[in-house]
Design goal:
196 residues; mainly alpha; 7 helices
Length: 196
């Protein structure tokens, strides 16, 4: 009996969702959601705060209407306007973010070179440098999204190369210190035993 109730509830829900999908503007919802996700993924909310707030308000209002299955024409308009605002945030924010990342990656590259990561963790270092070249190339053609993705990879792989190298150097230094301490102990034992 419980299973029948569950199946009937599930079927009713499916019918309801399918009827909603026919009337609600799903393409506009997907488009706005994708632009929103991209804006948030790149953390661009503060680069064009006013446009982001406008987009969020329109998107939220549309979601409420979708949940209530009301006013498909208004939902479509809200989602279209939200997409326009999200795109404006991306257009304004990505070039600025790319410039910030370029500066940050210059520091990461410097740290990696300083510890000679190109000798110890060659794979991560070379992958980071390849991404740096690709980022600069993308910047030169105003492909800011590609530049941002490449710069983020530069940071990630230089970070890995730096810390892998630093860890190995630290382990080596610790091993040398332990060896020096043991040699001192042996020397002191020899001095004490020769005095006897």
């Amino acid at each position: 009996m419980q299973l029948k109730k569950y199946i009937l509830t599930l079927l009713f829900s499916l019918v309801f969702v399918m009827s909603c999908s026919e009337t609600m503007p799903l393409k506009e919802y997907k488009d706005a959601s994708a632009l929103r996700d991209k804006t948030i993924r790149y953390n661009l909310q503060n680069y064009s705060k006013e446009q982001f707030d406008i987009a969020e308000a329109k998107f939220s209002e549309a979601v409420i209407l979708i949940d209530e299955n009301k006013e498909p024409a208004k939902v479509k308009e809200l989602l279209t306007n939200a997409s326009i605002s999200y795109q404006m945030v991306l257009d304004e924010g990505l070039p600025q973010y790319a410039a910030v990342l370029k500066e940050e990656t210059s520091e990461e590259r410097g740290y990696s070179k300083e510890v000679k990561a190109y000798r110890v963790d060659k794979d991560n270092y070379e992958f980071a440098e390849l991404n740096y070249i690709n980022a600069l190339s993308a910047l030169s053609t105003n492909n800011y999204e590609e530049a941002v993705n490449c710069f983020l990879n530069v940071k990630k792989y230089h970070h890995k190369a730096y810390f892998t190298t630093k860890k190995r150097y630290d382990e080596s230094a610790r091993g040398l210190k332990e060896a020096e301490d043991k040699i001192k102990q042996v020397d002191e034992l020899e001095k004490t035993s020769s005095k006897k």
